[in-house]
Design brief:
By secondary structure, the protein is α/β, with parallel strands linked by helices. The chain folds into 2 domains: 171 residues, Alpha/beta knot (3-Layer(aba) Sandwich); 72 residues. The chain is built from 10 helices and 7 strands. Helix 1 links the parallel strand 1 and strand 2. Helix 1 runs parallel beside helix 2, helix 1 runs parallel beside helix 7 and helix 8 packs antiparallel against helix 9. The longest helix has 19 residues. It starts with 9 loop residues before the first strand and ends in a 13-residue tail after the last helix.
């Protein structure tokens, strides 16, 4: 494949249920030279043996056996997303399915890839991103969906809207292949060009830069930590409130120095309440 406009994604399969679906997914990944498979759920007792997956998985994997051999298990989706800059979730649900706070923009595969390409232009290194698939019966939970920046929806007929998991992955990866071949495209504005699509240009102060998703997540975790020392989470649902804060941080480009101002305000409130000052470690905190 020629130079990629959009880098290869990691594929994350959350809480697999049906025998054979991991193998079928591995096979379609191999069709498009996608190598990294991350699985969320209890790991097999011996992930290095042929017993790690069902016989059905091995049968359906075919030339995707190397993908199975190198697959890694994670206890939850947040852990599986470590080291990645962007996550696109896959959802067969309608855009009004999730409760307020957990909602994320629903986009077509082409638009999603265009926005990944725009993110890539801003990234100081090769953008690392993931395509996230939920369990076969009901898809990603509301909190899992809120960990993704966008949700990819593949339109189907109303009479039979459900798509097999491996087929959905194949359709998306085929779009990725066509996008890199230049056969389809979507020009998304770069993060430094606009705060919200179609609005005024976004300017940075001299010496500043846009905060990364990891830095935004670190601030989110610190905000939740500070708020947990108050009565804030007594009434609203913690997960919903965290999802709303995450959506706010995801929704627009944020200069790093602006995040530092918010962090300093939270830091002063926390230290004042505790009666002592602690290390300023905002950028050292693991998201």
């Amino acid at each position: 494949m020629s130079a990629l406009r959009v880098s290869r994604p990691a594929v994350i399969f959350v809480r697999p249920q049906a025998a054979g679906n991991i193998g079928a997914l591995a096979r379609v990944m191999s069709n498009f030279s996608i190598e990294e498979l991350r699985l969320v759920g209890p790991a097999p007792l011996d992930s290095n043996s042929l017993d790690a997956f069902s016989k059905m998985d091995w049968a359906l994997a075919c030339k995707g056996r190397e993908v199975l051999d190198n697959a890694k298990y994670y206890p939850d989706l947040a852990s599986a997303l470590e080291g990645l800059h962007v996550a696109l979730g896959s959802s067969g649900k309608k855009d009004n399915f999730f409760d307020l706070g957990y909602t994320r923009p629903f986009v077509s595969p082409t638009r999603a890839l265009g926005e990944i390409q725009a993110e890539s232009r801003e990234a100081p290194e090769i953008l690392k991103w993931a395509f996230v698939l939920g369990p076969e019966d009901d898809g990603l939970s509301a909190e899992e969906a809120s960990l993704c920046q966008k949700l990819v929806h593949i339109d189907t007929c109303d009479q039979n809207p459900s798509i097999n998991l491996a087929m959905a992955a194949g359709l998306f990866l085929y779009h990725w292949h066509l996008f890199n071949q230049g056969e389809i495209s979507h020009e998304a504005p770069s993060r430094s060009q606009a705060v919200i699509e179609g609005q005024a240009a976004f300017a940075l102060d001299a010496g500043d830069r846009l905060a990364t998703l990891d830095e935004k997540e670190a601030l989110l975790n610190y905000a939740v930590e500070v708020l947990q020392t108050t009565q804030f989470f007594k009434t609203p649902d913690l997960g919903n409130s965290r999802a709303r804060l995450r959506r706010w941080l995801q929704s627009a480009p944020a200069p790093l120095n602006d995040l530092r101002v918010v962090f300093e305000a939270l830091y002063q409130l926390k230290c004042k309440a505790q009666g002592h000052f602690e290390a300023r470690d905002f950028l050292k905190r693991k998201p």
